């Protein structure tokens, strides 16, 4: 923030010491001031001194360039009124300096009157309260703001002669450092930690102690520190230590910070480096919308042309879609089943965007998105993937190394297997893992991941072709239920039972799996596809004796729903892609080509025809597909 005439600042403890010095320095820049203090005479004096300087920058003001407001900062209603008065006089708040502070008068262990509580109230509680009110006031003015809380060097290291003071300032330091996220709303909160300055408070300190710290710090350095925290836009949650010996130094140092910050597994940073693709934004783009609620996808949807609304929102990202995934639930989505509610409520949502999953390139980022770059490949698992471009909140973007169609298959199906094995199954190695519907979308990932982790894998499926595919993927024992009885095979070949079951069939299969579970076994409920039939959703089953069974064998039956693990999507997508890139993981795409938005309805119908094998993907931008295949 540039210190320029016309801004306004609110300063607690502005009647003396550091608060006064900063106030007068701001006045010399023509900044309007509200001086808040408990000492009326001194506060008024500062306001009138400041007034002379501020007036040099302005003429014909209809309000006082500086005002004094008497206030006990520990009294919330007093400070609330003071902030309101500031807003009323100056129409906004740009800078807030919380400088009011006191030291303890007696050692805390001899403190029979509890006066130490007052020290904490003034030094810490009031700072929290004033920070809260300052943020509120700044947001109401819709302007960026800077708050500086006065910590102290004794908030960074202990001060044996006044543990209460040191404790309160340590609190201010970590409170302020925790406020980094407000930067996103345009508000930077920083803490300034000077060593001893020759103020009323500093003069109370034992001179011997001042000497060993190198003597009193000059007030000019404190002001320089405050100005740097105000002016440098990169400072948010920053803690600036100012000492006579070492000058200005940010705390913690990068070395200290590296010790406690887990080195970011932040994919956004890692991917900031990869080859960017060139992207041209056209004037308009096409997308598929559901205009009529209908289970027939073709009848329910149409392609519409839309103008870009630029610029996009500050936290949004525009993704150019290259491949979109076809999902069995697309037809349930177009019939409105995903939203629920009355027919009237459903119709009110129309038209809405279709498509569940896509991969493409970042085509534009909002003003506040600084960890994603245009041209980076990325995936999404949000509605609206059947479009040439889709706008999504930045947090939904999953960067990937390459915009490949296989990524689309990795999303729902791959992530479910990967995360469910880690979190729900707690899978390690050397176990027997049973996967049902193993040739299906998620089943294929499950068998391969279980195998890669070093387990013996048993897989069920219906049909020779599927059985052959599973064999090729390294499954140890494939049970084709059209040819063999699953129960008999398990009983004979795995008499001790299986340790982990990845179960997505439900109904009788669930019962069968439960009965085949070993002592300490874990059965993961991924879905119950056999129960989904019928226009009226699925039938919940009764599981008589379930508790008795799992009790007798110390077993676990655990549900898994991908949506509840979104915080792990990026990490698991990264490792799936790595496995795929290093050819350890096979991703099966259906060989049939669907090109352009116009072929989405064909692709949806193809999926439901039962002829597909592997993930059905539509190439939304065929020209990109051609470029890639030439490379
Ligand atoms: N782990 C698994 O794999 C699995 C899967 C499915 C079912 N099950 C078990 O099978 C049973 C039925 O399942 P569901 O899917 O049909 O469940 P559901 O539809 O959610 O019904 C659960 C029933 O339990 C009753 N209930 C809930 N909390 C209760 C409480 N504190 N005390 C007494 N009754 C309570 C409810 O009746 P009110 O709310 O009207 O009181 C409700 O009728 C449940 O025991 C469930 O845990 C287990
Ligand atoms: C806070 O101040 C107001 C008015 O200045 C006063 O009425 C109130 O009693 C004070 N509250 C406390 C807790 O001291
Ligand atoms: C702001 O601080 C950063 C980090 O300490 C520094 O690199 C940069 O030069 C500073 N900017 C200005 C304008 O002083
Ligand atoms: C960027 O790429 C270089 C060379 O490939 C690599 O050494 C560096 O670590 C990468 N940086 C990031 C942030 O990934
Ligand atoms: C389709 O998408 C939904 C929602 O993301 C997901 O729950 C479901 O598992 C997906 N189905 C397939 C076959 O990918
Ligand atoms: C989704 O639609 C299919 C095809 O009509 C139907 O068989 C299935 O029961 C529906 N699933 C859900 C969860 O509504
Ligand atoms: C489950 O048990 C309840 C209560 O005994 C019964 O009303 C219901 O019909 C049973 N459902 C099934 C699918 O057997």
Automatic annotation (TrEMBL):
<feature type="domain" description="Enoyl reductase (ER)">
    <location>
        <begin position="292"/>
        <end position="618"/>
    </location>
</feature>
<dbReference type="Pfam" id="PF08240">
    <property type="entry name" value="ADH_N"/>
</dbReference>
<dbReference type="InterPro" id="IPR020843">
    <property type="entry name" value="ER"/>
</dbReference>
<dbReference type="GO" id="GO:0005739">
    <property type="term" value="C:mitochondrion"/>
</dbReference>
<protein>
    <recommendedName>
        <fullName>Enoyl reductase (ER) domain-containing protein</fullName>
    </recommendedName>
</protein>
<dbReference type="GO" id="GO:0016491">
    <property type="term" value="F:oxidoreductase activity"/>
</dbReference>
<dbReference type="Pfam" id="PF00107">
    <property type="entry name" value="ADH_zinc_N"/>
</dbReference>
<dbReference type="InterPro" id="IPR002364">
    <property type="entry name" value="Quin_OxRdtase/zeta-crystal_CS"/>
</dbReference>
<dbReference type="InterPro" id="IPR011032">
    <property type="entry name" value="GroES-like_sf"/>
</dbReference>
<dbReference type="InterPro" id="IPR036291">
    <property type="entry name" value="NAD(P)-bd_dom_sf"/>
</dbReference>
<keyword id="KW-0560">Oxidoreductase</keyword>
<dbReference type="InterPro" id="IPR013154">
    <property type="entry name" value="ADH-like_N"/>
</dbReference>
<dbReference type="InterPro" id="IPR051397">
    <property type="entry name" value="Zn-ADH-like_protein"/>
</dbReference>
<dbReference type="GO" id="GO:0008270">
    <property type="term" value="F:zinc ion binding"/>
</dbReference>
<dbReference type="Pfam" id="PF00106">
    <property type="entry name" value="adh_short"/>
</dbReference>
<dbReference type="InterPro" id="IPR002347">
    <property type="entry name" value="SDR_fam"/>
</dbReference>
<dbReference type="InterPro" id="IPR013149">
    <property type="entry name" value="ADH-like_C"/>
</dbReference>
């Amino acid at each position: 923030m540039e210190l320029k005439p016309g801004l306004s600042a609110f300063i607690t403890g502005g009647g003396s010491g550091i608060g006064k010095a900063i106030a007068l320095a701001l006045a010399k820049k023509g900044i309007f001031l509200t001086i808040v203090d408990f000492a009326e005479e001194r506060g008024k004096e500062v306001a009138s001194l400041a007034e002379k300087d501020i007036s040099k920058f302005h003429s014909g003001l209809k309000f006082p360039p500086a005002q004094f407001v008497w206030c006990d900062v520990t009294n919330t209603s007093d400070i609330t009124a003071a902030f309101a008065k500031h807003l009323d006089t100056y129409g906004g708040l740009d800078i807030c300096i919380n400088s009011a502070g006191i030291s303890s008068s007696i050692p805390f262990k001899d403190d029979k009157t509890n006066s130490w509580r007052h020290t904490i109230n003034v030094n810490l509680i009031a700072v929290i309260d004033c920070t809260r009110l300052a943020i509120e006031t700044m947001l109401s003015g819709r302007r960026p703001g800077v708050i500086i809380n006065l910590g102290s060097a004794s908030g960074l290291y202990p001060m044996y002669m006044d543990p209460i003071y040191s404790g309160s300032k340590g609190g201010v330091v970590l409170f302020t450092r925790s406020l980094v996220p407000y930067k996103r709303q345009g508000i930077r909160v920083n803490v300034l930690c000077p060593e001893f300055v020759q103020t009323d408070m500093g003069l109370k300190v034992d001179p011997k102690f001042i000497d060993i710290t190198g003597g009193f710090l000059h007030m000019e350095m404190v002001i320089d520190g405050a100005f740097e925290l105000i002016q440098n836009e990169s400072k948010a949650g920053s803690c600036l230590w100012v000492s006579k010996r070492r000058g200005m130094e940010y705390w913690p140092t990068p070395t200290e910070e590296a010790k406690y910050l887990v080195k970011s597994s932040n994919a956004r940073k890692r991917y900031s480096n990869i080859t960017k693709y060139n992207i041209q934004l056209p004037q308009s783009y096409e997308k598929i919308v559901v205009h009529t609620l209908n289970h027939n996808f073709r009848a329910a949807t149409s392609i519409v042309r839309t103008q870009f609304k630029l610029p996009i929102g500050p936290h949004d990202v525009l993704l150019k879609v290259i491949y979109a995934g076809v999902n069995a639930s697309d037809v349930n989505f177009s019939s409105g089943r995903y939203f629920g509610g009355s027919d009237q409520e459903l119709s009110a949502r129309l038209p809405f965007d279709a498509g569940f999953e896509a991969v493409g390139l970042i085509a534009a980022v909002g003003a506040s998105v600084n960890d994603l770059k245009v041209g980076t490949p990325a995936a999404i698992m949000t509605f609206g993937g059947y479009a040439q471009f889709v706008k999504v909140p930045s947090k939904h973007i999953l960067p990937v190394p390459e915009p490949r169609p296989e990524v689309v298959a990795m999303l729902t199906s791959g992530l479910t297997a990967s995360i469910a094995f880690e979190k729900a199954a707690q899978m390690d190695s050397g176990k027997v893992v049973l996967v049902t519907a193993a040739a299906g979308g998620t089943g294929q990932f499950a068998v391969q991941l279980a195998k890669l982790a070093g387990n013996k894998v048993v897989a069920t499926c219906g049909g020779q072709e599927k059985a052959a595919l599973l064999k090729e993927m390294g499954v140890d024992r494939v049970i084709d239920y059209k040819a063999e009885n699953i129960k008999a095979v398990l009983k004979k070949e795995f008499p001790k039972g299986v340790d982990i079951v990845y179960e997505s069939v439900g109904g009788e299969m669930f019962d069968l799996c439960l009965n085949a579970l070993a002592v300490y076994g874990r059965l993961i409920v991924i879905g119950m596809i056999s129960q989904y039939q019928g226009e009226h959703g699925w039938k919940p089953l009764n599981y008589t004796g379930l508790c008795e069974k799992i009790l007798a064998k110390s077993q676990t039956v655990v549900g898994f729903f991908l949506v509840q693990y979104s915080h792990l999507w990026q990490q698991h997508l990264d490792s799936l892609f790595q496995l795929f890139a290093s050819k350890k993981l096979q991703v099966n795409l259906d060989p049939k080509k669907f090109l352009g938005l116009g072929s989405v309805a064909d692709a949806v119908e193809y999926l439901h025809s039962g002829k597909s094998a592997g993930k059905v993907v539509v190439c939304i931008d065929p020209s990109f597909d051609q470029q890639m295949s030439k490379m």
